[in-house]
Amino acid sequence: MSAKPILILQMQRMGDLILSFPLFLWLQREHPGHPIWVVGEPRFYEALLPVSPAATYFPWTATEQVRRTAFALCVNLSHERAAATLAGEVRAERRVGPVQSTDGVRRIHGPWHLYRAGLVHANRHNRFHWADLNALDCVPLSRIAATRWPEPRTCLGDRRRIGLFLGASEPAKRPTPRFWADLARELLHRDLRPILLGGPAERDVAAKVQKQTGHNVLNLADRLTLARFVDLGQSLELLVTPDTGPMHLAAWTGLRVLNLSLGPVNPWETGPYQPGHHVLQARISCVGCWGCTHPRHPGAHHETRHATHRCHDHFLPRRVAQLVHALADPDGRGQARPRTADGNLFLSAKTPQGLYHLNRLLPENATRSSRNMLDEFWSMFWGSSFGLWERDKPLAAWTDLTRAFPDLAETFVHFLFGFHRKLRRARDETFWSQGPPMLRPLYSQAHLILQNDDFSWKSERQILTMTEELLRIVAGEKNL
After folding, report:
1. What is the DSSP secondary structure assignment for residue 354, as one 8-state letter?
2. How far apart are CA 88 and CA 94, in angstroms?
3. With CB atoms 3.0 to 4.6 Å apart as the test, which of 151, 218, 264, 338 could cross-link to 326 if both were Cys?
4. What is the DSSP letter of 274?
5. Other C-beta atoms within 10 Å of 61: how many?
6. What is the per-residue DSSP string for 370-408?
């Protein structure tokens, strides 16, 4: 008798599906012999079949066989109501993610999936990547830590060929046509060979860019299938791209990426997942947002003309071209290193525990900011709370924060002691946003936990226990 399959529901876009591929691999290794079934959008998964881990795919419109099958595990990675309904209808020994029961009650199963749901508009201090969050409720950390991802390859042919992927799902996430045209000219000036890439949505933009730069720039926008895009990537030295599905496809297939992380995206959550890729981010306080609250007037005059978000101003074509030239090292000496960037330059990597990490490369010798240290503390606290490691890690992170920013630490403790009084207003839909930004992770997570169990006494006790543990770490036992 064959082992029960494992069901994964993923009806999001291409990038989300590719970021689910590590989960497929980990589940195959953790549960050998159990087939992986995936319910998704055919327009995304059909094109990705050649690069997908072994899995049987089903469209959302034909799930009769799924409903008739008994599963060892059902993991719902989608936020759509239809996915939660299906997760509640199938027969599964265990369920993870949003599940809607037959009586219409919707619950999120698994602390990490609940945590991820709480990041909406409250992700300022999050340092857990989507690919890791997909898995942490059903894959042991030891399995994740044991995974070794290959480094992105170096092109064996003409190292001057640089792909420019022009599009992204939202206008705020992609550079302007003017930026791409200026960047292409700057690359040509440095004897590099830019190639314009994109899908049907980028066809007109690519035509404008090519018109402004001349026919020395090869325009392949809307001319390649995903399979041919992957093949082309074998002969490119680098892909310069915003945060978009093809960026994740490039990283998955070994093409080195320079991610221009602009607009309402957080590279800690959705940056290129495999180690060895570069991420350039503006050096301003609001980066990593969920949604922009500082749009600018589109008529404002600046080098990236017609951009509508302040972070776009920090991506200057000449400086990006200098960075691309250093990363490509077209002379093949292997000694060129980026020395300057108008922003923060990171290299994707893994922590000793195997989780995603961004190592800062530039600016060199930058002091750790209070925000970065709060990011680190919160990630250590949530990892401890959900059983990834012991309390010593958040304790060490808090000690570092206290030494570097004693006034901020004192303010944090002051606000935390008043948190239990604010819980009286937890039924207010805006409760998650009522705390100071440094405590927003606690407010958001508490709000989700209470909502997820209909504000039961059990969920209130869970919040109080969690807050007590946080107080022990930041204030010490004697002050409780």
Report:
1. S
2. 11
3. 338
4. S
5. 6
6. HHHHHHHHHHHHHHHHTTSS-THHHHHHHHHHHHH-HHH
232 membership: H or E segment, kind and range = helix 226-233
Task: Name residue, tokens 């239809």.
Answer: 82
Distance CA 299, CA 391 (A): 51
Does the pLDDT value for residue 299 go beyond 90?
A: no
What are the Cα distances from residue 110, in Å, to 115, 379, 460? 9, 17, 17
Residue 18's closest CA among 239, 227, 248?
A: 248
Lookup result for tokens 């995974």:
147
Distance CA 277, CA 344 (A): 14
The amino acid that residue 161 corresponds to is: R
Residue 465, judged by CB atoms within 10 A of its CB (0-12, 13-18, 19+), counts as exposed
Write the pLDDT tens digit of every residue in 21-69.
Answer: 999 999 999 999 999 999 999 999 999 999 999 999 999 988 999 999 9
DSSP codes, 288-309:
T-SS-S-B--TT--STTTT--B
Tens digits of residue pLDDT in 423-466 = 989 999 999 999 999 999 999 999 999 999 999 999 999 999 99
Angle at CA of residue 262, ends 379 and 116, nearest 5°: 30
Q: How many residues does the chain have?
A: 480
Q: What are 55's two structure tokens? A: 């899995």
Cβ-contact 287, 311 below 8 angstroms = yes
Q: What are the structure tokens assigned to 307, written together?
A: 């951009």
Angstrom distance (rounded) from CA 298 to CA 337: 35
| SS3 (DSSP) at 270 | helix
Q: Give the residue among 191, 452, 137 at the shortest CA–CA distance from 321.
A: 191
Q: Work out the pLDDT band at 304, boundaries 50, 70, 90.
A: very low
pLDDT digits (tens, 9 = 90+) for 355-385: 999 999 988 877 889 999 999 999 999 999 9
Phi, psi (deg, nearest 5) at residue 392 = -60, -30
480 vs 153 pLDDT, higher one: 153
Task: Compute the distance between CA of residue 217 and CA of residue 194 in angstroms, rounded to an integer.
Answer: 6
